[in-house]
Amino acid sequence: MDSKSKTLSTDARSSNSSTEIHTAYQKSDEGTNEHDISVPECETILSVLGMTCASCVNSIERYVGDLDGVLSVKVDLMTAQAVIRHVSQTMSAKDLCTAIDDMGFDASVIASKEISAPEAGKGNSANAAILGTEPIESWFSVEGMTCGACVANITDLLENMTGIISADVQLLTAQAKVKHVPRDIGIREISAALCDAGYKAAPLNADDGCGKDVVDPSTIALKNMEKHRRQAAIRFGTSLVFAIPMFIISMIIDMALPSSNHVAMEFHRKVFKDYSVSVICIFFIATAAQFTLGLYFYSHAFKSLFRAKTANMDVLIALGTTAAYVGSIISVTLQNGGGEQFFETAVFLMTFVLLGRWLEAIAKGRTVSAVESLVKMQPEDALLVHPKGSKDGEELEAISARNIQLGDLLQVNGGMRVPCDGVVVRGQTEIDESLLTGESVPVTKSEGSIVTGGTLNLTQAFQMRATAINESSTLSRIVRLVREAQSSKPRIQEFADRVASRFVPLVVLAALIVFTAWIIAGATGHIKSSWLVTKSSMGGFGALASHTDDVGPGEQRMPYAIFSLLNAIGVLVIACPCALGLAAPTATMVGTGLAARFGILVKGGGATMEAASKIDIVAFDKTGTLTIGKPAVIDSYVTASLETHENGEKFVSWLNTRVHELEQMSSHPLAAAICTYIREHALTKSESEEPGLLGHTEIPGHGMQGTVCVPAEFSAVLGWPLAGDTEARLLVGKDAWIKEEECNMNAMADTRTRWSENGHTPVVVALVPTTGSPSLGTALSAFALADKVRPEAQDVVARLKKAKISVWMISGDHPAAANAIARQIGIDNVMAGVLPEQKSEMVRTLQLRGKQDDGMAVDVNKTCESIDDLASLESGKVKDRTKPGRKDRLLQRLFPFWGRQATASTKIHRRAKVAMVGDGVNDAPALAQADVGIAIGSGTAAAMETAPALLMRSSLYSLLTLLSLSRVVFRRVKLNFVWASVYNVVCIPIAAGILYPAADRGLPPAVAGLLMIASSLTVMVSSLSLKLYREPKY
Predict the structure, then answer these.
(1) Cβ within 8 Å of residue 163, ≥6 positions away
(2) Rounded distance, CA 769 to CA 697, Å?
(3) Which label site among 657, 701, 892, 1009 has the fewest CB atoms less than 10 Å from its CB?
(4) Would the pLDDT of 237 be above 90?
(5) Which one of the listed residues 11, 254, 497, 621 is annotated catalytic?
């Protein structure tokens, strides 16, 4: 068959799961690792609670990254996790937890595993894990050991078993750690071997051998976040114990009740000098709060400053509350109890901060609901089938899903979730795959169908064979990818991180400047006496609660030093880096969760969604992307002489039956397509049961040859001057081969030409008598095969064009075939005959040729006429018009999200953003070169490890959803950044007292603290409102 047929064959085979696994197995064996490590490296996932903003993330990454033995560290604020690669001999997981605890955070180990290959080999390692060829460690409890001899016996027993690499048996803990290859031997087989040896053994379902139930890392993370929410709620509840009585005394009794009220008179009664009952009560409440609630902030601030050598939000809170508490003591003491006091500021400030952190913890939990939904899909139990023979039937055993082994026969009853990935071997049912693919319509599964762990069996019971288990299953890998995607930072977040890392020192400096400025203003007499009136002059709670706005002639005024201190405290507490740090992570986390719900895995996380929101060009692969990837018969032909002969119809029926019988002997996808066509259009049940094939041979590269007996009644139809039944060769294959066999093909010349122009692959059917003249051989019929275009492809291309996105096709097929598909779909730009390794160069060409201001594509020949021009472009022989000017570079350095609307030198030409859509296997270089690589598939291992984005549904409409959702998400990210920036720009001057000259009013520190919390919550609510996004109707 020709090159076109070979492409069809390859792509058709790629849809077969077993072939994919075989291909992955071959790929895992290719090459050798040139970077073998001499010391064991570990990857540890830690839960890190207590982080409040990007400053905390930066400080942990910087501090831990400088520790000996740490190779890399990645901290995610939203999921409260840190992924650290380290040398276990130098820095253990426990040491990492201790180091982070010393910084003032609560760290615990979620999972830790030894890695034997560098990160570059991650794809091969993933394939090996899926195939079960990668060694894993399992723990077992072993009862009955009495001495060292038992340990030696068990060790020898295990290490002599096939598939076991090493065994570590511990007498004191009665446990054994076994490193084994799950494809060769499973945990139940190991347990059975130990039991046969006279010991009571069972798998410990725990990665660390502690005997606890195994919990997926994502489940542990969710539980830790729930624990964090409970702790935040407890802290806030404790703060109310102090805040409520403080509010009653300082706001209601002291300020709202008239002085003639008996309760007010009793609290205003002087006890010692000018110390009233109210002042004494407020002092003790504030002191108790400062040394209980305040210890939390003091501890974290101390560790941040002296351990991590950085400053976070806790430093600002500690400074603000301490200044309010100490300042009140000094003010009251200097005036013998009669001075201005603001103890309530410290209490209210801590209460509002703790309230905000509790609400933030709740909101963060909702942003990771996508992961939570996926984790809840993982079943805990499974039904293992034990065949007992044809007469005795089968026995079912309920086992933990963690104890399933590769190849196990499992039964899934109606209403149960599929326990792992597998293949249906008996039964038929309907499966709900909505949480994986977003598709609400149940999918029918029968024998041979692939089922995915976590999906729901809606109807009948069926039996399946396990093919991927535990962390190697599709669902576990999806959970891992979603978790990694949600921790991926877009470029815009890098700007926020840089600002947050410098924010706290700048705010402290601003507070000192404000304090100094007001002190100077007070000393030079530039502060009006009306501004120095006690609490009511400060606005906020005081003014709202006060029973009068009049200032009596004897009203005591606060010293201007206290006035200056209050304004400085307001600056400290109102400044909020949290809103800036949450602007991008919260929105991208909700966005990636929504994408997962719609059947789109955004493996690259925020960075991928940011690039997808700016796409100028979408380049499609043809086979398996714009087309279904399976050949099908598009047209058929029968010679005119057969159609006009009186026995022609009967002969054609007989011929189709023999062709169907012959093609069934081949595993080639073109043969399967022809069989399907004949069954659906030209074969009756009675004919299909009639054997007529005397022999068959498959000729590689040509087709199928069979021996048949042609009834005498058909000799006249064929024009053969032979009497009786005639033995003949039945040829089904390439037209060139049929021609080589000297068969007459003149009758179908016009049809073959028309099919070739349309890019169809012809398969010709001919009969050649084994006796007589070979020239009697005749081509009798033919089939035109092609890869069917996806039904939605034309509409998707039209919608992309309407959005002013240029659409290209990059295909390795013959230009005639590629152009035929392009015309059918509506694609004007085609690159055909491109080898897989050249596709990445084509993508680079599209990127470098740029994009005009009007958003329409520029002809590629205006920038690079060929791949060779790329070298001259890089060497400087061709002017690179994609480089931004000096002004643009300055703006983009300060503001990475600076858009084209603000640029000056890119008005005519700029680098184009290209998305490449392919099958995730053959297009790997192009997917990597593109700004956004998108694989369309069904969650296979190869596709999931290749592209930053994966469309789980077999529909190109998901591409439109991805682009639409990405634009919505990053509009929200920019809105969040604008809000966070405007909030600080506007509120900090107000807290500093800029409104006093115009309004005679200021902002009390307690109200400033409330506004600070409101800013973070506003960003969180803004991001959570993305959940209202609905997938467009197509």
Answers:
(1) 180, 181, 183, 184, 185
(2) 16
(3) 701
(4) yes
(5) 621
